[in-house]
Each structure stands twice: as structure tokens, then as C-alpha cells.
Amino acid sequence: MSEGLPPGHGPSEFPAADDLRTTEVDLGGLVGVLATHLYSTPLVAVRELVQNAHDSHTRRTLEDPTTPYHAAIRVRGDAARRTIAIEDTGAGLTEPEIHAYLATVGTGYTRMLRDLTGDQDLIGAFGLGFLSAFSIAHEVTVTTTSHREPHRTHQYRSRGGEQYSVRPVDPRPHPGTVVELHLKPEHAHLADEHALREVLLRYCVLLPIPVHVGDDDQPVNDVPVPWRQDVPGSLHLTRMRFAASFSRTFEPLTAFPVTPTEDRTDAVGLLWVQDGGTYGSTDNRDLAVYLRGMLLAEDARDLLPSWAGFIGGVIESSRLTPTASREDLQRDEHYRALQQALTDAIVDGLYETARLQPAAWRRILARHGQELLGAALCDERLFTLLADDVPVPTSQGDLTAGALRAAGHGAVHVALGSGGGFEEMLYRAMQVPIARGDRYAVLPFLRRYAQLRDARIVELGSESGNRELFRAPEHPLAADEQAWLAAALAEDGEQLLPARFDPPGLPLVLVPDREAELKARIEDDQADARIPSAALRLARAFTARTDGTVRARLYLNLAAPAVQDLLAAYRTGHTGAATAAGLLRSLKVIMAAAAGSPTGDLTAALDGIGTAVAALTAALPDGLSAVPDTLPADDPHQGHQGDRA
Ligand SMILES: Nc1ncnc2c1ncn2[C@@H]1O[C@H](COP(=O)(O)OP(=O)(O)OP(=O)(O)O)[C@@H](O)[C@H]1O
């Protein structure tokens, strides 16, 4: 290290060369750490060994490009013997190479070869991967024949990796290597060939050399890769087939390509929209990243935009830098450039789908409508694409914003409350669909839609929205009328507001004050236990500004004939005025209970109806007022007599 420091420029106390000591390495400890802690799953060992087998083929072709040979990799599992064997017909190793590369931690031939030849198909870099074999095996043997000495075969054998032996064995018929792992008992299940097939499909899907499991003739990696030029047949079908064979959990609805952008990224690959019941908060992003054909990061979801919870994909790039465990990627400028490129690829892909595959587009909208609402808000181009197509949840089922607007006579209606409530009841009466503003992304999406399409938006539950719905009356009521109506119709905490609104058949509507509701909830003692104290303090500071005395506003519809008649009765001193008011009050309480914002006393309200009916019927002229106690003997309804008794 001292040569790196120019004389006189190093720290003055830096020791002279003779004082320098070599750092000791506790090989046993290091081997243990590398083998057991570097990788997140034991399966990575299988990946590392297949990768070495692949590199040995590349090495053989580089060193001897003219002699043809059958390049293949075969992985066998033997559950009875508890072994896995990885065989290749690649370059093999001579005895000195076993010592120098295989058995020397941190040195490999592969990296040197890549530096020498510039060949980008070589995967190995760190000289560590082989060690991972000891994370799942208590003993490893490597039987290898170098293509340079095809008549000499050597066997490396080690328990634990710290010490090893090498001896000559009977020559094998052709160059290549067999790595045999004697699995630790806890990893015995890895010898199952079914499981190996599944894992190797993902690990090796992009490797050009065929990888077989057991005695299979068919390689696990024989699915045509759509972005490799020589794929025959329809590109769309090839893409769908690739996506379907790769995607474990979801059927693909459509698939679109990732293509390199000269200035930004070299990544190529495929993305697809997953089928499946996904909801707003569900993140099913699934991206596998390959480097030189080998799986580098199984779950690189962070490369996809956070709104794309329905996207799966496979990409390869040689600009990304793996970590030493080769399970994750360095977050460098190439990583960030790729993130942007993938976002663009998804948006482009969705545009193409909308344009060219209407049936697939409809399925995507139906399956992922909620998520797309949110996605549209994150990306301007996506918003333009989706604004008129994406379904919005409303009180009348899913509707596009355009349909919502048309049904709302030019205005987009959205409820701020948490579903149900008086809003829904009122709108049902008005027969206007109301968007569910409490659902994921609905309110901001509609606000943006209204702004862009120059539509009127009525936000029900906000002060301005309510003002728009409940218009001021043409003539204010006289003070005594207002006082009489308030006493007759409103409970404590309800403010009576004369108004005009649709439909005229609806005489009154009780609108809870959402802020007062919040204040009551926040000030509830129990809130202390549920909300973190800092958040509670903030929330209370906000609600302190709310005058909680008005719990709800009772809008009285002066356009309703029932209300006009009630007022006329009051003005003329009609004896039925109080009874009629009692009926309306009962109606209010019953409607509020049905809308989920109870007020007053429901039992009393129900009784009130009986009282009112009795009072009204008692007021009828003699002869019509009484229902006969018994029916005449020849009455055809005689059978009901018993019911009445
Ligand atoms: N199946 C094989 N055939 C021929 N040589 C092999 C084989 N497996 C390993 N080697 C040799 O052993 C060396 C060390 O392998 P190891 O897996 O530890 O590291 P690496 O592949 O070079 O790098 P990395 O840690 O990135 O995988 C390789 O560079 C290669 O020279």
C-alpha cells in the first residue's frame, strides 16, 4: 500500500516498509462468513455453480474456437443419496488451475480471461461463487478434465472449504467438470428435481447453452427469448409465451418490449401486465434482472415505478453493477437511468395496447382500474391516455369520468365522505351517480380531470360543494317561521337552513358536518391510545379551529310542495301544522338512520308516525274516521277477521 503514497505526502507517522505486517486471515471464519452470510437463500449456490459451468463453456470456445463439441449443462438431484451434481462439457481445469483458481478464495480465472479478451459473456468476477457450495453441502467434490489435457482427470475434494485434497482419478471420456454436492441434512430438499427444474427455469431462461435437469431431453431454457433477433413466428405470441412461462403467479394480459435507448440504457427485455385481483394498495411488481444471461436480481421491483403494482418483467443489462452476493444492484447512475427508461417503456406499452389490442386494453382497465387511477396521477402521459377510459367507482358502479359527467348534467359529482351516508341517499333520490371520493386516487383524479376537460366538479361534503347543491331560497323566511321550523324539526346541534334543491320530492336532508365529526373523534379520550401523540397534537391543533357546536346542517327544501304546504298550514294556524311537522321530523330521523348518520331518537320517530297517523285520521269527519271492528258476515275478506281480533 505504501507505493501509492508519493514520498513526503503520506501521513508522517506512516510506518516504513520493514515495519509493515500482513493482515492475518482466519480462513475458517472467512469461509464460513462468505458461504453462509453472503447469500440470502441456499438456492444461490446452485445458481453460482451453473454460472461457473456456463463460464467454462465460454472459456473453452474462446481458447479453442475451431474444435466443435456438444455444449451442455446438466443438473441432477439424487434425493436418496442427498446429492446435487452440476455437469458441464466446458474447459475443465488442470491440476495447477485447481490450486490457483478453484481453491484460492478471491481469485478466479474468469475475470482475468474477461480482462484479457473483453468477452462480455463471461459472468464470474469475484472469485467467490464456488465457496457458496459449502453453504448447502458438507462435502464438495469437483472432478475435472481440462480441454488442454483431455487424458488427465483430477478430483478436488473438501469438507467445509478450509482444507482440500486433489488427486488424479480415472480419466473421463471428454473434457469438462462435475461438481457434486453432498447436501447438509437441512438442505436435503434441494435434491428434488421438480424443485430444481422450477428454479433453474428462472435462473437460466436467458442462457444460450442448454441446461437440462436429470435425464430430461428438453432443456429448461428452451423458451424462445422474444428480444433475440432470430425468434421465428409472431412476435406478440412469442412475447406472451415467454411471459406466461416466466410469470409464476399471474397470467399475462399483454406484454410489451423494453428497448435500449442509446443515451440512457442498454437494457433489453420484456414487461407484461399481470392478470389477477389486485387492489389499490397491492404491490405485485415483479422484475428479474439478468446480467450476461444469468439471473442477477430476482426481485428488482424498485426499478419499476411504484404505481406499477401490476407489472412483471425480465430485463438484461450489462451496465448495472451487481453487489458481491450478486443478488442486488448498486444504486448508481445506470440504475437511475434504467428506472426512467422502464417507466417510459410501461407508458409506451400501455399506449400501444390501447391502440392495437382493444380487448386486452378493456381487460386491463377492468382489472386494474383503481391502480391506474393512481398511476395516471403520477405520469402526465398516462393521465392523457387514461383520462377518458379508466373506470371510476361510483354509487352506480364503475363509470368513466365522461359518463359520470354526462349523467351529472355536465358536472362531475364526488362524495368526500367515507361512502354511504346522506350523500348516497340524496344522490339516489336525484338519480345522479356519485363518485366515491374516499377510494384510492378518485378525488385527485377527478379534480385533475375537471381541470383538464373544463368540467364542473361538485365535491359533496365540502362547504363549496354543499353550497352548490343546496341553493339559497328566493325569499328568506320570516324570523318566526324560521324559529318555529327549527323547534319543530331540528335536534340539538342541528342548524336549520332553508334552501332549494333537487329533487322537489325530498323535503329535507340532514348533512353531518364532517369536520365536527373529526373533532369529536379526535377529542375522544380513546383517540389517545390509537393515534401517536405527535399526530394527535397536530390533529387537535387543526380541529381546535372547528366550531364543533354545529354537528349537522338540516337543509329544508323550500322547493318541495310538502314544505310549502307545511308553511302555509303554519301561516294560517291550521291545527294539523304541528302533526305534519312531526311527520317530517320522523322522516328525517329515519332517513338519517338509514344513511348511517343517526340523529334523534329512532324509536320516538317511529312512534311519531303512529301518533301522526292517529291524529290525522282522528281529524276526519264522523263516519269515515272509524275502521269497523268487525266486517259484515258476507264480506269476502272475512278470512282476515281472525287477524284483526
Ligand atoms: N465448472 C467449472 N469449470 C471450469 N472452471 C471452473 C468451474 N468452476 C469454477 N471454476 C474456476 O474456478 C474459479 C473460481 O470460481 P468462483 O465461482 O469462486 O469465482 P468466479 O466464477 O471467478 O467469480 P464469482 O465469484 O463472480 O462467481 C473460476 O474463475 C474458474 O476459473
UniProtKB/TrEMBL annotation:
Q: Which UniProt keywords apply?
A: ATP-binding, Chaperone, Nucleotide-binding
Annotated residues that bind ATP are located at 48, 52, 88, 177
Q: Name one GO molecular function term.
A: ATP binding
Q: Which Pfam families would you find in this protein's record?
A: HATPase_c_3, HSP90
InterPro entries to which the protein is assigned, alphabetical: HATPase_C_sf (IPR036890), Hsp90_fam (IPR001404), Hsp90_N (IPR020575), Ribosomal_Su5_D2-typ_SF (IPR020568)
Q: Where are the transmembrane segments?
A: none
Extract the ranges annotated as region (Disordered): 145-171
Q: Which SUPFAM superfamilies match?
A: ATPase domain of HSP90 chaperone/DNA topoisomerase II/histidine kinase (SSF55874), Ribosomal protein S5 domain 2-like (SSF54211)
Q: Its family?
A: Belongs to the heat shock protein 90 family.
- Which PANTHER family has this protein been placed in? HEAT SHOCK PROTEIN 90 FAMILY MEMBER (PTHR11528)
Q: Can you say what this protein is called? A: ATP-binding protein
Task: Please report the organism this UniProt entry assigns to the protein.
Answer: Kitasatospora camelliae
High-level lineage: Bacteria, Bacillati, Actinomycetota, Actinomycetes, Kitasatosporales
